[in-house]
Specification:
Elements: E1 3-8, H1 13-23, E2 31-38, E3 47-54, H2 57-67, E4 73-79, E5 94-95, E6 101-109, H3 112-121, H4 134-146, H5 155-166, E7 171-179, E8 186-191, E9 196-199, E10 204-207, E11 219-222, E12 228-232, E13 235-239, E14 251-252, H6 268-274, H7 276-287, H8 304-307, E15 312-317, H9 319-334, E16 340-344, H10 345-348, E17 359-364, H11 371-387, E18 395-400, H12 406-410, E19 413-416, H13 429-449, H14 454-485, E20 494-499, H15 504-518, E21 521-526, E22 544-547, H16 554-565, E23 571-575, E24 586-589, H17 598-616
Parallel strand pairs: 15-16, 15-17, 17-18, 18-19, 20-21, 20-22, 22-23, 23-24
Antiparallel strand pairs: 1-4, 1-10, 2-3, 2-4, 5-6, 6-7, 7-8, 8-12, 9-10, 9-11, 11-14, 12-13
Helix pairs in contact: 4-5, 7-13, 7-14, 9-13, 9-15, 14-17, 15-17
């Protein structure tokens, strides 16, 4: 969630820090800050300058222009508030009482209350409400203890102090530390939060996410849990939590980050909605190329051994990724014939279901850094190893948009959705990429298990091949429809979304999108459940958006829609044009396709309507309040 950038080298640090933070803006934040150290020619000690600003990064940039931030060593941070309001005093970096030691942190220090109380009893005065502020005070205390015998300040002392403090911290963290007493050393540490070291020419740049490294280097050294690194002009020294030196070779980034530009679009979100037809085309070319043999209807990068023996699937995900997983579960159960359950990753870790044999566990995270999902995968792997036996062996797959992320280093099998950099906090094109990945996975399993006829496999495959060209026209059509419809929502406070079967998750996703960017209260329900409570909400000021696609429950959905219409609700239909869909007050038409692929079409009106409602209200569509793109805290 928070963004970290740190640099040491031969170039002024502030411009590199600001550029790195700008590339991390998409993650979501409410304040920003940096600290640099300028070396002194008259002494071995440097001078630390710390600048912080509430709000957007532009405010920090203006502050740097006004006051300056000299030096070749620095740390920077964009904060998403967890502890303490989004105010300047709670922004990072945080310093010790002397003001000469500065820390930036991503994550949550779960035992910060007890640590803070202990420090206050020693006379430490806190100036913020954050959990992070305990860290510089703890490091300062350790430095005092280490120097009690008169040792001069040096990088080894700073490294040891950070190592000892890291052992006192419970929870997840990635942190970077500067000390003006040692103006040529940067110490970074990590536990259950991403942190990478980028290796440049005579300089190093640390970051919490790969976009910050774009244009700087493609050679990286990702820190592993519990590791601490000392960076100096001489190189990198890597240690584990016990202080033992580690040896590990750097690696190359597998993907090249896209340049984040809006082109002619008003917002990144609108541009990314339009990019979905291109993403679909690339996915089809990659996984459903013409000329595939009949017995291999989808080109997935796994051997037969991956599919062999899988009797159950459990999927762990959060938010939008969970909605994609619900569509995936429907496909894997109903099309591929494999019992599949979707779990909230945040709940799975603390209330896991009984172990089932021959189970594939799938973690879905667009960023590859979602803390709840990563932690749940680790827990599941550990309990299966503890149980022992081949039947309960751990087999894990990650579905992500970031193949250089933590999940790609954590699980043995990875599917890259290939959606490219998504800047808008509210996921659109990555959701489509996740859906397509589940379609491919369902086809692959159905083919390997031979529980679907060749005709069914070919039919679904051919429908997916036609999908990209249909999608391009649909986006343009609904961009105009949604723009015209949006003003009628200017005073709306509640919206209900209805769907059934494979489109129920799309109703949930439609409600989530509207909540995320327009701040209108919205809920998604299975259409048949409306009369079991939600119908009490209905009146003429509550729009009901109903997804009605031809299939097993088509007539049932239309009947449920009639129930809403009888209560004077404004009825908006996402359905094919035809006599039976004339019951809707407003129709957002989609092509008449098979029920299997209908979610790929029905989600488009949801995305564009939410976008235009938010834009019509003059809201920050790309960075809605309180949200973050990469949720790296539990």
């Amino acid at each position: 969630m928070c963004g970290i950038v740190a640099v040491i080298g031969s170039r002024p640090a502030a411009p590199l820090l600001l550029e790195g933070l700008k590339r991390l803006e998409y993650r979501g934040y409410d304040s920003a800050g940096l600290a640099t150290i300028k070396s002194s020619s008259k002494s071995s000690k440097g001078f630390l300058r710390c600048l912080r600003a509430n709000g957007k990064l532009a405010n920090l940039m203006n502050l740097v222009d006004e006051k300056g931030a000299p030096g070749y060593l620095g740390i920077g941070h964009t904060r998403w508030a967890t502890h303490g309001k989004p105010e300047e005093r709670n922004a990072h970096p945080h310093r010790d009482s002397s003001g000469g030691l500065a820390v930036v942190q991503n994550g949550i220090v779960e035992n910060h209350i007890s640590l803070r109380k202990s420090l206050e009893e020693e006379g430490v005065h806190f100036v913020s409400d954050t959990d992070t502020e305990v860290i510089p005070h703890l490091i300062s205390r350790e430095l005092c203890l280490l120097r009690s015998d008169g040792q001069p300040a040096n990088s080894a002392l700073l490294l040891e102090a950070v190592r000892k403090v890291s052992l006192q911290l419970k929870g997840a963290y990635a942190l970077a530390v500067l000390w003006e007493e040692v103006p040529d050393a940067l110490v970074v540490a990590k536990k259950q939060a991403p942190l990478l070291i980028g290796l440049g020419e005579g300089e190093f740049l640390c970051a919490s996410d790969t976009p910050a490294l774009a244009g700087f280097t493609r050679t990286i050294l990702p820190l592993e849990d519990g590791e601490i690194a000392l960076l100096s002009p001489l190189g990198i020294e890597l240690f584990d939590s016990g202080g033992n030196r580690q040896q590990r070779s750097p690696s190359l980034l597998k993907s090249q980050e896209d340049e984040a530009t809006k082109r002619h679009f008003r917002h990144f979100m609108l541009k990314e909605i339009y990019e979905q037809s291109e993403i679909a085309s690339l996915w089809v070319d990659r996984h459903l190329p013409l000329g595939l043999p009949g017995e291999d209807p989808v080109a997935f990068p796994f051997r037969d051994s991956f599919y062999k023996g899988v009797e159950n699937i459990q999927i762990l995900a959060c938010g939008t990724s969970r909605h994609a997983a619900m569509v995936g579960a429907y496909l894997l159960e109903q099309f591929a014939g494999i019992p599949t359950t979707v779990f909230y990753a945040s709940e799975f870790r603390y209330a896991p279901p009984p172990l089932t044999p021959n189970t594939l566990t799938i973690g879905v995270t667009q960023s590859g850094e979602t803390a709840d999902t990563l932690s749940a995968l680790i827990m599941e792997d550990q309990r299966r190893k503890l149980h022992g036996g081949a039947l309960f062996a751990s087999k894990q797959l990650g579905i992500t948009n970031r193949i250089d992320s933590s999940i790609a280093r954590q699980v043995p099998y990875i599917l890259d959705i290939g959606a490219g950099l998504e800047v808008g906090v509210a996921a659109t094109k990555t959701f489509l990429g996740q859906l397509l990945t589940f379609y491919g996975l369902a086809i692959a399993f159905a083919s390997k298990r031979k529980n679907r006829s060749t005709h069914d496999l070919i039919t679904l495959r051919d429908e997916l091949r036609c999908f990209p060209s249909q999608l391009h026209a649909l986006i343009r059509q609904h961009d105009e429809i949604a723009a015209n419809l949006a003003p009628s929502f200017s005073d709306t406070q509640n919206v209900i979304f209805l769907g059934r079967g494979i489109n129920y998750p799309i109703a949930l996703e439609g409600a989530l999108k509207l909540k995320e960017i327009s701040y209108i209260h919205a809920e998604g329900y299975p259409a048949g459940e409306m009369k079991h409570g939600p119908i009490a909400m209905l009146e003429k000021y509550v729009p009901v958006i109903s997804i009605a696609t031809p299939g097993l429950v088509f007539e049932k959905v239309l009947s449920n829609a009639q129930e809403a219409k009888a209560r004077d609700a404004k009825l908006i239909g996402v359905a094919p044009e035809g006599p039976v869909t004339e019951i809707f007050d407003v129709l957002m038409p989609i092509p008449e396709v098979s029920e299997w692929i209908s979610p790929l079409f029905s989600v488009i009106p949801m995305q564009l309507l939410s976008y235009h409602i938010a834009a019509n209200r003059g809201l920050d569509v790309d960075q809605p309040r309180n949200l973050a793109k990469s949720v790296t805290v539990e």
